[in-house]
Amino acid sequence: MVSDASLLGQLQTGDDAAFDVIFERHYERIYGVLYRLLGNRADAEDVAQQVFLKLYRSPQRVRGGADLNLVGWLYRVAMNAGYNTIRSRKRRHHWSEQFARQWWPFSSASDPAQLAAARDDQDRVRLVLGQMKDRDAKLLLLRHSGLAYKEIAAALGVAPSSVGSLLTRAERTFRKQYQQAFPDLVDGG
Amino acid sequence: MLKMNDATLRAFLDGALSPTQMATVEAALAEDPQLQARLDDLRQEREAAAALLAPLAPDTHHLSPTSAALKRFKSTVSGKSANPIDNVTERMNSMKQFVKQYQPAIIGLAAALVMVLMFSFVPVRALAGQFLQIFRVQGVVVVPVDTANLEGLEGNENLEVLLEQIAKEAEVLGEGEEQTFDSVSDAATAVPFTVAELGGMPVADGVMVSSEMTARVLVDRELAQAVLDAADVELQLPRSLDDTPIIINRPTMLGQAWGFDPGEMKADRPDDGYHGRDHASAEARDGLLFLQMPAPEIQYPDDLDLNALGVAGLQMLGYSEAEAIALGATIDWANTLVLPIPTDTNVDVTQVDINGATGQLVNERDGEGAALTWQSGGMTYFLTGSSEYNADTLLELARSVR
């Protein structure tokens, strides 16, 4: 299998075929992360397209020759674009989103009414993630989307050796906050 | 030397250690029951978190096939959609983006420069939001826009990079926090203005107050100038922008909604029969939103030439210099919200009379939705609805405001 680094090098010299391979290799997982983040297919697909469009138009933005440089860049851009989409949603006051959805995913508020409005499991999880530090929330999303430690480290700019402890801490925080927000829905442990 | 701590054990559980390290941990576990117990605890913690996070994963109905995504990507890159229907859909979505952003809170200044540009770049739309609060709206002007020009802007990587950094300092005082109320009368105590109500409407299904938000933004003048230069717009920004912040104030806003979330918000509400409609059985798509707020304000350097800035914005939207100057001369840029509406989408914009005030009615031709905004007595009103709440109904409701 041709390495990501080689494919990136080919893409940087204008080889569109290399781009196709990169797309086919990474799209599904990028989409998976974004779906978890955004909660709907349309937004996740749109943002995933933006990520690959950015790569296609400016492959030179990915610096360094290691395989992980590309993966790290893709997920970093995906997470940033996903968060921008969420922030953008929060600013809109269009009725269909403001009221029908009740609260944006990843809303930062912890109003009791907001908690009550989190009607399903996805809403509840996003609500709690939204109350966590960005890095911790991203860490959980990336790991629980199946990324390896090295990939997570490259995406978040942390040392691979620290991912285990960061992940453990983030999961504890997540569970604790979830339990506080929805005590009736979580077992004591 | 590998430390037998939680980080190592967790990496062991996740198979993230090298083969040598895995063997070392296995040996340590075999000799140390406490370590084994700790590993079991960590495994349980991991599984508990995984169980809570599992609902986020896309189910089979929400997967996105890679082949279809790549096909769509290639269509985008080649500038044509593989499916004419997709093309229409994309354009409709583009238009809806504009309409969604069209709100009373959108009021801004620096923005003929910034707003139109921001709208054009997906990655910086979030930043654009900061500027959307800027205008002091006393009137609205609709500017037809050929979306082909926007697509051209979107492809300009240099502009995109510059725009991402154009606000070198931004401080928000008051987050515009939202609060829900059981009734308009309760909400009225939380707003510094007399609440207007729509005639003939039942009790709202949702009432929200978004508190005042003030933002202080210091523009990176050199970058902003570079944006203008890159767009071939001849305009010199004043040096006062270097140390004079733009101060944006979006006053407290009140919103009332009907027809949303019938399962949770309306189950206990009696149907009072507005137009004989059973609200309790309404779908979320069939709804109405009424927003009201005092006119937002912005403070900006005295020597910032708003007219020139506005004309520059029009040029960036694709108007020729002569057209931009002619159109710009008809607009009072200090207090007018400029609403760009794509010309090639399924939407009509008409000027309407609301009890003596001039309003702008945006209507989707397929009847999917409509929006109406007008200003009266120092207040800005925004009314939008879909399905049953069509353009005629919105007009009727707007004229019934008391």
Describe the structure.
The complex is a heterodimer of chains A (189) and B (402). Chain A is mainly α and 189 residues long. Helices cover 70% and strands 0% of the residues of chain A. In chain A, helix 7 (121-131) crosses helix 10 (163-181). The longest helix of chain A has 25 residues, at 67-91. Residues 91-119 of chain A have low confidence and may be disordered. With 402 residues, chain B is an alpha+beta fold. Chain B is built from 15 helices and 14 strands. Chain B is extended, with a radius of gyration of 27 Å. Mean pLDDT of chain B is 68; it is low at 80-139, 149-157 and 261-285.
Percent of residues of chain A in beta strands?
A: under 5%
Helix segment tally of chain B? 15
| Gyration radius of chain A, rounded | 18 Å
Helix content range of chain B:
25-40%
What is the helix tally of chain A?
A: 10
Sum up the overall morphology of chain A in one term.
globular
Query: Percent helix among the residues of chain A?
Result: 55-70%
> What separation lies between the terminal Cα atoms of chain B?
77 Å
Biggest sheet record of chain B: 8 strands, antiparallel
Characterize the largest beta sheet of chain A: strand count, sense, and whether it forms a barrel. Answer: none
Largest two-chain interface = A-B, 71 and 67 residues
Radius of gyration of chain B: 27 Å
Structural class of chain A: mainly alpha
With strands numbered from the N-terminus, the spatial order across the biggest sheet of chain B is 3-4-7-8-14-13-12-11
* Overall pLDDT confidence of chain A: 80
Mean pLDDT figure of chain B: 68
Tally of DSSP β-strands of chain A? 0
* SSE order of chain A: HHHHHHHHHH
Runs of chain B in which pLDDT lies below 50 for 5 or more consecutive residues are 80-139, 149-157, 261-285
Global outline of chain B: extended
**E-strand count of chain B:** 14
